[in-house]
Design a protein that fits this description.
alpha/beta; about 375 residues; lyase (chains A, B); homodimer; Lyase, Ornithine Decarboxylase, Chain A, domain 1; nine-stranded mixed sheet; 11 helices; metal ion binding (chains A, B); elongated; EC 4.3.1.18 (chains A, B); TIM Barrel; 2 domains
């Protein structure tokens, strides 16, 4: 279908605007170069080789992943310097060891003494070291040792002094930027996460320990603060696609969003003043419920339409006000959904259709599972 | 891993209890035999060959699917008498025609004159007929012509008299049973859908038209009413797995639910009185938000635990009351989630692990896409 217009696709279909992807990726590369900080892009949003190539500028080095399936997938395709930024799962220690023994630089993350004990019990072959990042919670409230607790420094020291294990870095995810609205709020959280991380790095230095530091989230890395120049790395991910959520936070404009779900009208329901479309939660995900005046997505070019509800393969669309003019939406006509959360929407699709200015270029196939 | 306990699985993992699946399937087969009505099981919940074999008693005949990808998948593996019960998508007419020309009995569904026009414009080869079901809305409020509108009878007549097209049946989905609580309410909706469908069949008969009739939904077919004996077919699907939602509706008991998501504790957060588990929305889906006192799922054997929130690969678990006793939940320990909605949860997994009494038997691989 190369060269064909998007309208040849069977729907629902996830389409990726390659020009926007490249522009978003290039902007982040330049932003990090300007900051003088290493960009370690996160793969979790797209999980494809092609997009990873774009995000790494073709180097296939220095990435972060959220699942071990992603780590193995990228390792199998020549990627290296991979950080598996997920609190070490005990059922996957052996698979992590195999990757550590095979790659130049496979890195794991932990936030609990029991995890360190797991590594100690599984020394790597050929005198190799486990490369370990300490996960620090700087206010995000998900994984990590809370920065203010004495256990944080104790954990870092324990990692650093354990035989066969190297403290490679300190890693903080500022997912709390997702509660922000606008650049000012984003930068306040970015500043706080950076300051707390740098204060922790100072404590480490005092204890005679040096290692890398990394913070990340798409909002903070889209609007970095000056102090981030003192970090070693940043690790945003969603920025390559962006989405409606990121535009509401203020990370990007709606024009920067590189993904869409194409859907077609499959039903007219005049007795309910509704349309049916062929995109349900199997094509969009349920993420974004109650977050938008237009329902579960933005329907491009139709600001008066709302994606009210979804079942597995159906979406109910109604006007925000007034009666629907059905002649504008004949059965079979295309509508374009801008996803609320591109990570969640991409996760629902076994293949992405890539285009430039509406002409198809090919397909990207993501990896799945754990 | 055959014969191994479930604990050898890497998590998150969707596990299917084969004994429960067989029991649920057998009960529905027997229920339909007793009613004297043809069972046409829906494949949308699991989308696997193995489960389709169980649901059809090995016949590989008489199934209903929600996507054309499912139709093709089953056709490629020797299934026939397939009903693609989805308002005819105009972008897929040619693929539907190919299946109609290849299978003994491939059936499509429509609810609009423009769809009939699509079929008329694409006559099938070798004198074959399009086999068409008319979708009737008997109060569910999704797809279909509303039973009370004159257009319903007009559509049926138009289908019946169109050259190259045969009116095979009338199809109603009583998804409105999902709002029920308890057998009495379920049966009231089942009765209403059945009555309205049978009244419509009478109108058809008066107009000189005979064809099949089918209603379905897991709640209504789990508690059928006597009048359903007058239908030709029923088409439930979720009953093979069931889920927490079905147990709340009253379709089944929680013991009948055949699927679980296994997850492990990956973090302790005493400062928030929370645990982290390695199952986020990528492993469970976001379906069920706000529907359960225990959050997004039921945590088996731990009635005081609540799956409070999820991000892509993390779940936050907290007690419903009191402080967490972390010694009960060491890092690496297994928890078992009973999904709110098995269709949504199964859709997140590239593979299902099948077991009998906790011993692994093998894997089932679902088809995906459209």
């Amino acid at each position: 279908m190369e060269g064909e217009p998007l309208s040849v696709l069977c729907t629902p279909a996830l389409v990726v605007d390659l020009d926007k992807v490249k522009r978003n990726a290039q902007r982040m590369i330049e932003r990090c170069q300007k900051l003088g900080v290493q960009l370690r892009p996160h793969m979790k949003t797209h999980k494809t080789l092609e997009c990873a190539d774009i995000m790494t500028g073709g180097s296939r080095r220095c990435i972060v992943v959220s699942t071990l399936a992603e780590a193995s997938f990228y390792a199998d395709h020549g990627f290296d310097d991979i950080l598996y930024a997920y609190s070490l799962p005990f059922d996957k220690v052996e698979r992590c060891a195999a990757l550590s023994e095979r790659l130049d630089l496979f890195q794991v993350l932990l936030d609990h003494p029991d995890s360190l004990e797991q590594l100690r019990k599984r020394p790597l072959k050929d005198g190799r070291q486990w490369h370990v990042w300490l996960k620090l919670d700087c206010g995000n409230g998900r994984a990590g040792v809370l920065h203010s607790e004495p256990e944080a420094l104790q954990m870092a020291e324990a990692i650093a002094k354990t035989e066969g294990v190297e403290l490679t870095g300190v890693y903080a995810h500022c997912g709390n930027t997702y509660n922000c609205r606008g650049e000012e709020q984003i930068q306040a959280v970015a500043q706080e996460t950076t300051s707390l991380t740098l204060q922790f790095m100072e404590k480490l230095k005092t204890a005679g320990i040096t290692c890398k530091s990394s913070i990340g989230s798409t909002p903070s890395c889209s609007h970095p603060v000056k102090d981030m120049t003192q970090l070693s790395e940043v690790h945003p991910g969603n920025y390559v696609f962006y989405d409606v959520q990121q535009s509401m936070i203020g990370s990007c404009s709606l024009e920067d969003v590189a993904v869409r779900v194409l859907t077609r009208v499959i039903g007219h329901c005049p007795h309910r003043n509704q349309l049916l479309i062929d995109c349900g939660w199997c094509g969009l995900s349920l993420d974004g419920a109650g977050k938008l005046p237009t329902g579960y997505a933005v329907i491009e070019g139709h600001p008066n339409l709302k994606l009210l509800s979804m079942t597995q393969e159906h979406g109910r669309v109604e006007p925000i006000s007034g009666p629907l003019d059905y002649s504008k939406y004949p059965l079979g006509s295309l509508l374009t959904l801008i996803p609320y959360h591109s990570c969640a929407t991409a996760a629902m699709h076994p293949v992405y259709h890539v285009h430039s200015e509406g002409r198809l270029l090919g397909k990207w196939t993501p990896t799945r599972g754990w």
